[in-house]
């Protein structure tokens, strides 16, 4: 008794275990398929659907249930011919009707986002077109309006020379349209349009922060089609345009108690329910559904609202500038009065900047520190070291020894080193170099001029022995040296401003306004200092010229290996016609 009971029990247990394992395996297989589908998008869809229809087996031509239905497949052309009407589904009917893949006026089923190819060979008198009109045969000629989605008078052919017609049902194609002949009514039949995968229906998609929401979009003319799919269960899904939920334009998709999906737009200017204001944006083609508890919603909106004054009118999407997108999910939403219950339970930590035209996204914060370092280094270079070096060369010459020369070279070389590092930082951060932006162009000019200088300095022609005759080459060289150096500085400073402008485009102009003002102040103060120094120098030369002592420092410099000061005197005489006279007067006796 007892052993047989045990055997029975064990057998049962094994059976249960077996069925559990089978279930798990099946679930696993289904999951993997779904995963493959998700990863490979459209291509896998075909594979999956092939597998499924393979289970049903090849369709029997005699099977009336299936004969008048055709589900289109990607990359497989539907052959459109004409033939006698035997059991046309929509009598009264003409003698000749359209056949697709040898089936008489079947019901076509197509997926949005998946192109349908027709090989039209129904004769020259039966061009194919896809229309919103159930009767066809050119509704316009019957004083009925119709929308034509594809085809027309040219979409006609015969079996020897078929014409290919490709039609792409998009997300705005209605659920039911018709294929018909353009010349005769009631030759074709219905096309059922179903939603394809979002990745088929939209050209671009990116994952938002935390990878919990996928954002899809297609730009079409002056409007944009947008879809958002939650990757986890929730009662509502919201995506917002802005850096944070506060001060953002939010689009919320939710399913109400009756199971109806809604999409609505809001302007949020605070943290509580009272600060969520419904807006009257012109959203069209809105849909919201729940896929296994995860919300998917779609809408189409104009890029720029055609109104003014109200807050939603400022909600402009400019494809050329990055769009900052955030998200939130919660358990419950309702239109009208919102309450604490509408609080989100999960939300993105940071906005993702979406480049709508490029179809790319980048997380915002990652970019900042490195670019800030780049900016700071460039400021140190163009705002401090390079002007410092130039000023040293210009205003420190009256000091004894080669102080000015040392200061000049040290400042310029360190400026170049910092500049080089700064460029490396930017290039590394942006993963490459592009000349597209003004900032990059001007920065490159500054960089180029700056790095001409050491080469230039190395090649400088030496002065004639006693400095009496400045060689022609030397004069040219001096001009070149001054010109390149100052160009590098000017372009460097312009690059600072364009860089700030660039930063403003990326992160909003709020943050960069202060920096720009600061930079302007800095440039102005440096200019004032230069003016003052210039004034002092002129004054010194005048005084020097008057009492005849200033010759000393010229002489002192003259003993240097390179007699750089002579070039300075020559340079100043050329540069400032005002101060020319006293300078030359004092130089001559000394050299003699
Ligand atoms: C399924 O996918 C594989 C690999 O992507 C491909 O080689 C194969 O042709 C596909 N099957 C069908 C029926 O298209
Ligand atoms: C339909 O007929 C009207 C004239 O009745 C013509 O102007 C129009 O081009 C036709 N439509 C097409 C798609 O051929
Ligand atoms: C179409 O409508 C116009 C006026 O709107 C009328 O003159 C014409 O006779 C109508 N044609 C048919 C075929 O009904
Ligand atoms: C989006 O896809 C459609 C159809 O494939 C294409 O016509 C359109 O040019 C694409 N738009 C962009 C911006 O890539
Ligand atoms: C929506 O469109 C209507 C008319 O087409 C316009 O009056 C209204 O201002 C638009 N609203 C927005 C937010 O663009």
UniProtKB/TrEMBL annotation:
GO CC terms: membrane
Secreted as UniProt keyword: no
Domain DOMON stretches: 211-330
TM spans (from-to): 371-390, 410-428, 440-459, 479-500, 512-533
Chain positions covered by the region annotation Disordered: 542-592
Keywords of this entry: Electron transport, Membrane, Signal, Transmembrane, Transmembrane helix, Transport
InterPro entries (alphabetical): At5g54830-like (IPR057443), B561A (IPR045879), Cyt_b561/ferric_Rdtase_TM (IPR006593), DOH_DOMON (IPR045266), DOMON_domain (IPR005018)
Domain Cytochrome b561, chain residue ranges per copy: 338-540
Lineage: superkingdom: Eukaryota
Main location: membrane
Pfam families, alphabetized: At5g54830, DOMON
Coiled-coil ranges per UniProt: none
SMART domains xref list: B561 (SM00665), DoH (SM00664)
Signal peptide location: 1-16
Compartment annotation: Membrane
CDD domains: Cyt_b561_FRRS1_like, DOMON_DOH
Descriptive protein name: Cytochrome b561 domain-containing protein
């Amino acid at each position: 008794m007892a052993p047989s009971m045990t055997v029975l029990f064990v057998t049962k247990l094994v059976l249960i275990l077996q069925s559990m394992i089978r279930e798990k395996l099946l679930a696993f297989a289904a999951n993997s398929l779904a995963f493959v589908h998700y990863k490979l998008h459209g291509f896998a869809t075909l594979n999956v659907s092939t597998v499924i229809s393979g289970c049903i087996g090849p369709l029997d031509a005699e099977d009336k249930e299936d004969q008048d239905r055709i589900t289109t497949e990607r990359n497989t052309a539907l052959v459109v011919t004409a033939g006698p009407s035997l059991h046309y589904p929509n009598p009264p009917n003409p003698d000749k009707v359209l056949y697709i893949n040898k089936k008489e006026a079947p019901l076509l089923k197509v997926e949005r986002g998946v192109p349908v190819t027709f090989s039209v060979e129904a004769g020259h008198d039966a061009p194919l077109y896809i229309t919103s009109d159930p009767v066809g045969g050119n509704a316009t000629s019957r004083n009925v309006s119709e929308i034509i989605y594809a085809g027309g008078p040219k979409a006609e052919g015969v079996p020897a020379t078929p014409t290919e017609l490709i039609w792409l049902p998009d997300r705005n194609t209605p659920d039911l349209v018709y294929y018909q002949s353009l010349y005769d009514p009631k030759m074709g039949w219905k096309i059922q349009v179903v939603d394809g995968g979002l990745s088929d229906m939209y050209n671009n998609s990116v994952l938002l922060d935390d990878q919990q929401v996928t954002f899809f979009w297609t730009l079409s003319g002056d409007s944009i089609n947008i879809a958002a799919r939650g990757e986890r269960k929730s009662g509502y899904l919201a995506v917002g345009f802005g850096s944070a939920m506060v001060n953002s334009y939010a689009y919320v998709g939710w399913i109400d108690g009756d199971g109806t999906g809604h999409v609505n737009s809001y302007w949020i200017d605070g943290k509580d329910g009272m600060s969520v204001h419904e807006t009257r944006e012109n959203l069209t083609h809105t849909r919201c559904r729940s896929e296994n508890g995860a919300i998917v919603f779609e809408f189409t909106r104009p890029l720029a609202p055609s109104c003014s004054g109200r807050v939603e009118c400022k909600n402009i999407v400019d494809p050329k500038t990055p769009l900052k997108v955030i998200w939130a999910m919660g358990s419950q939403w309702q239109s009208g009065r919102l309450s604490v219950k509408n609080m989100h339970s999960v939300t993105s930590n940071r906005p993702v900047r979406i480049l709508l035209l490029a179809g790319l996204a980048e997380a915002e914060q990652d970019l900042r520190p490195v670019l800030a370092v780049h900016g700071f280094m460039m400021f140190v270079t163009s705002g401090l070291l390079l002007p410092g070096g130039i000023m040293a060369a210009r205003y420190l010459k009256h000091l004894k020894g080669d102080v000015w020369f040392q200061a000049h070279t040290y400042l310029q070389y360190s400026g170049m080193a910092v500049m080089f590092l700064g460029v490396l930082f930017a290039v590394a951060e942006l993963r490459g170099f592009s000349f597209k932006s003004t900032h990059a162009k001007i920065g490159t000019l500054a960089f180029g001029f700056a790095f001409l200088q050491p080469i230039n300095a190395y090649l400088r022609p030496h002065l004639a022995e006693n400095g009496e005759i400045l060689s022609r080459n030397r004069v040219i060289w001096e001009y070149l040296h001054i010109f390149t150096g100052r160009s590098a500085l000017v372009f460097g400073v312009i690059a600072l401003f364009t860089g700030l402008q660039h930063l403003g485009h990326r992160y909003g102009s709020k943050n960069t306004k202060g920096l720009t003002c600061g930079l302007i102040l800095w440039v102005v103060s440096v200019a004032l200092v230069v003016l003052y120094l210039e004034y002092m120098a002129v004054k010194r030369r005048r005084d020097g010229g008057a009492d005849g002592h200033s010759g000393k420092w010229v002489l002192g410099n003259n003993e240097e290996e390179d007699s750089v000061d002579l070039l300075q005197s020559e340079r100043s005489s050329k540069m400032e016609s005002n101060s020319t006279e006293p300078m030359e007067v004092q130089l001559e006796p000394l050299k003699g």
